[in-house]
């Protein structure tokens, strides 16, 4: 039809006006795709200009030359490794090989993403002799254990970085002091590598940093006080390392912090930091696995937004503050298990409407459990031999962890029967008779 013919010529004219991808980049991209997955005929599937018709995850942008007004297309994003149907990046084969063209052919690259592409740990891919383009703003390597390199030389000249995400790779060595020159960095996530050494104090100069995740490495020494200078920080995760000393008091300056995980380090006998109560936007806090000891402090009044607390295996002693049930209105998880806490389970925990789990296992808690079935099903109380269930307790039918608690005997009930303000359980039988006669003749 006439309409179809007009549409064809219109589309053709658009494609002719479209700036073409630099031929060097087009050729390099075909080679790169083939090295990642040689089972797919890339030139056959994508025979045209790769900026006009490209695999998902390949993104171009257009630049004008300084000597002419004519625009040129260049690749600015490369994303490899199938993630999901929503992000179907070019899949990497089990025999994927690393192509150095990646480091030499894409001078306009702003984002590089590899997800589960290099899993053969017997075939290491040393990267420290290669230089990424200085234009790079996002570098994301997730679950590529055969990427093995010292971290410091790998980061040379990447001062434009906004996101550095290296999760589950083989990077080793120390966090380099030059990281402080990455003035635009907003996320530094290097979890589950083999990094070690002390964290440089210069890290505190990254004023735009919102996410700092050094978890599951082999860092040691003290956490620098300068981390408290990162006032834009939303997430701080230093868990599963070898940090010692005292948790820095300077962290109280992180007024925007929502997530803090310092669990499973070697922080010593300094107690739960009181400054936690001064971080108003905190939603999750985890200190489990540190020998902090001491009592749970009364710091909860201004922390109504807290959703999750992990204080397991910390050597905590004393009673559980009832104020936790009063002020932590949005709490969904509370882990206080495997400590040395004593006394009763606060009745105020019954006020927590959104709680999914309260784990109090393996402490020295005692007394009578009086929670409703709805709340009782959320409690984990095994390993507290002093606890018992009241006879009228509606949660005693629960077959879960609470079901392991024995019913209370009469002698277990802490509330004595009171007669005219005097507890009859305080007296022996003879005294009871005398008291009864006294009441009869005096008219009390």
From TrEMBL:
Pfam families: LRR_14
Entry keyword set: Cell membrane, Glycoprotein, Leucine-rich repeat, Membrane, Repeat, Signal, Transmembrane, Transmembrane helix
Annotated localization: Cell membrane
Annotated transmembrane regions: 417-441
Keyword Cell membrane applies: yes
Superkingdom classification of source: Eukaryota
One of the record's GO cellular component terms: plasma membrane
Xref: InterPro entries: LRR_dom_sf, LRR_R13L4/SHOC2-like, RLP_Defense_Trigger
Signal peptide: 1-15
Disease resistance R13L4/SHOC-2-like LRR domain boundaries: 155-336
Similarity annotation: Belongs to the RLP family.
Protein name, per record: Piriformospora indica-insensitive protein 2
UniProt source species: Cicer arietinum
Lineage, uppermost ranks: Eukaryota, Viridiplantae, Streptophyta, Embryophyta, Tracheophyta
Name of the gene encoding the protein in the UniProt record: LOC101503494
